[in-house]
Amino acid sequence: MALTKVERRTRIKNRVRKIVSGTADRPRLSIFRSNKQIYAQLVDDIQGTTLLAVSSKLKDIESSEGTKSDKAAMVGKKVAEKALAAGITEIVFDRGGYLYHGRVKQLADAAREGGLKF
Fold first, then answer.
1. What SS3 class is residue 24?
2. What is residue 112's three-state secondary structure?
3. Which keywords belong to this entry (predicted)?
4. Residue 93 forms beta bridges with which residues?
5. Coil, helix or strand for 40?
6. How far is the CA of 96 from the CAs of 82, 85, 87, 99, in angstroms?
7. Which residues contact 4 (CB under 8 A, 6 or more apart)?
8. Can you give the residue range of the structural domain that contains 63?
9. In this structure, what CATH number is given to the domain that contains residue 104?
10. Residue 117: which of 83, 74, 69, 73 has the closest Cα?
């Protein structure tokens, strides 16, 4: 029997998470994409803490005009801005089992433009 979309994504996510891990010096940029919103957070997996989180639900992003891809790019820039303010320049990118395409790619490219290295 074929896997559902969610089961397939969960398998990919678990396979990647065996390898990708974040530290305090180089945290993991974890992405979650729903149908309407996109969320990004920097995670220190050793301590088990979230260092910072940004989503498209922030007032300045949500109130702005544009497509979901445009808002994902705004989230990427905001993540980079907050990370640089916290002294974080290098991260490990975790696409969360999603294809590196569309909103996920927009977010990653905007984070790179904002100054994050990965």
1. coil
2. helix
3. Ribonucleoprotein, Ribosomal protein, RNA-binding, rRNA-binding
4. 29
5. strand
6. 21, 25, 24, 9
7. none
8. 5-114
9. 3.30.420.100
10. 83
Query: What distance in Å separates the CA atoms of residue 27 and residue 46, rounded to the nearest whole number?
Result: 9
Per-residue pLDDT averaged across 8-15, rounded? Answer: 94
Single pTM value for the model: 0.91
β-partners of residue 39 are 32, 55
Whether the pLDDT of residue 37 is over 90: the answer is yes
CA–CA gap between residue 82 and residue 87 (Å, rounded): 9
Residue 43, classed as helix, strand or coil, is: strand
Side-chain-side CA neighbours of 14 within 13 Å: the count stands at 6
Tokens (6 digits) for 8:
């397939």
In the chain, how many domains are there? 1
Q: Which amino acid is at 25?
A: D
